[in-house]
Amino acid sequence: MAEASTHEGGCTCRAVRYRMESGPLFVHCCHCRWCQRETGASFALNALIEADRVRLLQGEVEVIDTPSESGKGQKISRCPTCRIALWSNYGGAGDTVRFVRVGTLDDPDRLPPDVHIFTASKQPWVVLPAATPAVAEYYKAAELWPKESLERRAALQARARSR
Ligand SMILES: [Zn+2]
Ligand SMILES: [Zn+2]
């Protein structure tokens, strides 16, 4: 895997450090009210990546069961000391895909959104760039993800079935 496509990050107190061992499958900028509440801000920026491509370099995470809009819940992995959230897994997908919080990366500028979702509840002052796809709610991966990411997703699904 190319060194250039890895990304390192961590929490605020630096007890937890991790590395994304490749680029993400896709990057979501979510404008739903749940993400607004969880971040205390206007949206969440999540890099979706296979769980086994996120390696802990230092420390451990504490996994907190948290309600989600779908009702299936999400597990938020936080630093046990400073409580910063590093990534989530959502109920539907289990722990095969992690939603890494882009703001915890050392260089978050490298992962801008690939899509804006749930723009129906976007805060009105947030102005979206015309060049990035934006949907009122959700979308189908087959319509927006690059071919390589769809292949990676198919590999994940095949592995899940063979378990
Ligand atoms: Zn910490
Ligand atoms: Zn959301």
The ligands bound in this entry are: zinc ion
Q: How many strand units? A: 10
Strand order of the largest sheet: 6-7-8-9-4-3-10
> How does the helix and strand content classify structurally?
alpha+beta
Q: What's the story with the biggest beta sheet? A: 7 strands, mixed
Name the average pLDDT: 95
Low-confidence parts, pLDDT < 50 over ≥5 residues?
Answer: none
- Percent range for β-strand residues: 25-35%
- Tell me the number of helical segments per DSSP (H or I, 4 or more residues long): 3
Give a verbal description of the structure.
- Helices cover 17% and strands 30% of the residues.
- The chain is α+β, with helices and mostly antiparallel strands and 163 residues long.
- The strands form 2 sheets. A 7-stranded mixed β-sheet has the order 6-7-8-9-4-3-10. It has a 3-stranded antiparallel β-sheet with strand order 1-2-5, with no helix packed on it.
- A hairpin with a 6-residue loop joins strand 7 (74-78) and strand 8 (85-90).
- The chain starts with 6 loop residues before the first strand and ends with a helix.
- One zinc ion binds next to loops.
How do the strands and helices of this protein lay out in sequence?
Layout: E1 7-10, E2 17-20, E3 26-30, H1 33-39, E4 44-50, E5 54-58, E6 62-66, E7 74-78, E8 85-90, E9 97-101, E10 115-117, H2 141-144, H3 147-162
Parallel strand pairs: 3-10
Antiparallel strand pairs: 1-2, 2-5, 3-4, 4-9, 6-7, 7-8, 8-9
One zinc ion binds at residues 30, 32, 34-35, 44, 118.
